[in-house]
Amino acid sequence: xxxxxxxxxxxxxxxxxxxxxxxxxxxxxxxxxxxxxxxxxxxxxxxxxxxxxxxxxxxxxxxxxxxxxxxxxxxxxxxxxxxxxxxxxxxxxxxxxxxxxxxxxxxxxxxxxxxxxxxxxxxxxxxxxxxxxxxxxxxxxxxxxxxxxxxxxxxxxxxxxxxxxxxxxxx
Length: 171
Prior knowledge:
The protein is an alpha/beta fold. It has one domain (4-43, 50-170): P-loop containing nucleotide triphosphate hydrolases (Rossmann fold), CATH 3.40.50.300. Helices cover 38% and strands 16% of the residues. It has six helices and six strands, in the order H-E-H-E-H-E-H-H-E-H-E-E. The protein has a six-stranded mixed beta sheet, with helices on both faces. Helix 6 links the parallel strand 4 (103-109) and strand 5. Helix 4 crosses helix 6 (116-132). The chain is globular. 36% of the residues are buried.
């Protein structure tokens, strides 16, 4: 699997991850048009078992796209609180659960970095995905490289899958 288009065609599960300031609503809308059930799981993490809400999401039938996951906590927990409420063992278990559900992690990137926290988050995501790629396919998508849709009545989304001009790679 080398592109987002291939991931959409081959995966039952896509987990979109990337810095908070990266726009993802257009991509989520396009995934919904391709039949993916969209879920956002950024609720307050439970103290005892922070991965439980994500395991419950992965138990849903059909095509599933999750906006954000425990990887967000791995990145932003240390940046904002000094520690993560999710362990690496839990993150690796999550990655394996995504892979078992015929899934992939979609690493959203953009060359635009707005502040110091964004730069640190970008580096932390890169480190996390380098580690997780041993357990689950990772598709890197430069969201600034997604082209606008072809004009027409069927095109209401700001992006079209398969019409990407930017670099899409599997890490």
